[in-house]
Design brief:
Part of the signal recognition particle protein translocation system, which is composed of SRP and FtsY. Keywords: Coiled coil, Cytoplasm, GTP-binding, Hydrolase, Nucleotide-binding, Ribonucleoprotein, RNA-binding, Signal recognition particle. It catalyses: GTP + H2O = GDP + phosphate + H(+). Its main location: cytoplasm. This protein has 440 residues and is an alpha/beta fold. Helices cover 58% and strands 9% of the residues. The protein has three domains: 83 residues, Four Helix Bundle (Hemerythrin (Met), subunit A); 195 residues, P-loop containing nucleotide triphosphate hydrolases (Rossmann fold, 3-Layer(aba) Sandwich), CATH 3.40.50; 136 residues, Orthogonal Bundle (434 Repressor (Amino-terminal Domain)). The protein has an eight-stranded mixed sheet with strand order 3-2-4-1-5-6-7-8, with helices on both faces. The longest helix is centred in the C-terminal third of the chain and has 23 residues. The structure holds guanosine-5'-diphosphate (GDP). Guanosine-5'-diphosphate (GDP) binds next to helix 6.
Amino acid sequence: MAFESLSERLSGVFKRLRGKGKLTEADIKAAMREVRTALLEADVNYKVAKDFIAGVTERAMGQEVMESLTPAQQVIKIVNESLTELMGGNEAARIHIKSKPPTVLMLCGLQGNGKTTHAAKLGKWFLKQGHRPLLVACDIYRPAAIDQLQVVGKQAGVPVFTMGTEKPEIIAKKAIAHAKDYGNDIVILDTAGRLHVDQALMDELGRIKEAVEVDEVLLVVDAMAGQDAVNVAKAFNEAVAVDGIILTKTDGDTRGGAALSVKAVTGKPIKFQGTGEKLDDLEVFHPARMASRILGMGDVLTLIEKAQDLQDEKKAAETAKRMMENKFDMNDMLDQLAQMKKMGGVASLVSMLPGGNKINPDDIDEKVFVHIEAIIHSMTPAEREKPSIINPKRKRRIAAGSGTSVEEVNKLLRQFEMMQKMMKQMKKNPKAFGRRLRGM
Ligand code: GDP
């Protein structure tokens, strides 16, 4: 979710406020009008935007703000808190796992919104947490849907229960019995989708809920549909009582309207967001972190979690040790690049840094990193370990081998030298190094 223009608009509003010192009621009112327009342009539901502004204005007009020494900061703080509240509050909404297994989750939603993909993503996510999930094919109308679930289930390493075109409620019942027999503690039902909300679909979901004990109904909605996604969520919630929302395709949603309004309109929290087509592209939805991303304050916590999730801790410790011993070489650099790629590439990492939302991802040339990798791959083991032996003749060979130029090889070698110098300094005088970094 990029929220690019919303972030930009809000940072413009706050910059003007900061320039004013003391704020008058008129200043706050003018700023709030701009925030309201920005929200509407982000495709936020009209009533949600109106109520939001009313709440923020009331708080901002309060004495603590008007009389504070930094009124603009106070207003930003109120907007931050209110955005967090709007999306569900400080705590991320989690799935409650029952002490008596299995916990049964029913995924529902319109066709094409990402239900089957997210059944597998969730399965993989639970698997990583040490659970033993089971996916269940309850979409009996499209034979391709069963095949698709089997394919993604296999990719995720999660077993899939199928019974062909048997009635969905019977499949669900048998699947739960199977889960009990085989020790699966989480059952994820992938139900049928339709192109539009219709009664037959709601009746079918209702029959499944009557036949088995569903612990959570999770609605899968496509963030890119904006307000339509919110309307769909409202209809599903009224018909089958949803417990939580999985907001998918947030990677393709630049406006963020669904993320901002769906909780306020339906009363149901977003529990997860889908951030890409790959099965690892699933994140717990943290309203507070999302609010600070919108306000350009970055989302360093998610960044750290991603790194922790992927970094092999032993390897990270080894790299750190090698850095401290001045042994960091081109092989280590290659490892670091691979890690970065696994974390979703440079553009996605930058977007989570404070101020990173101001950088257009299209301006980040991921090809540079592909070139660096190619250059290192074209080096011999001796060259990788000791780049100082790379003379002009070797440079020409490496450039030719990697399909790059001698200038690019030179540039990489210079960067590497600089990194080594920095590491030496860090070792010699960690405190001064810290001061230098902070000053950067
Ligand atoms: P279903 O009909 O609801 O089961 O939808 P599918 O799971 O078949 O997904 C429809 C399409 O959306 C597929 O091409 C998926 O790869 C794609 N998709 C699903 N989730 C995401 C996501 O979070 N991001 C992106 N970019 N694509 C997604």
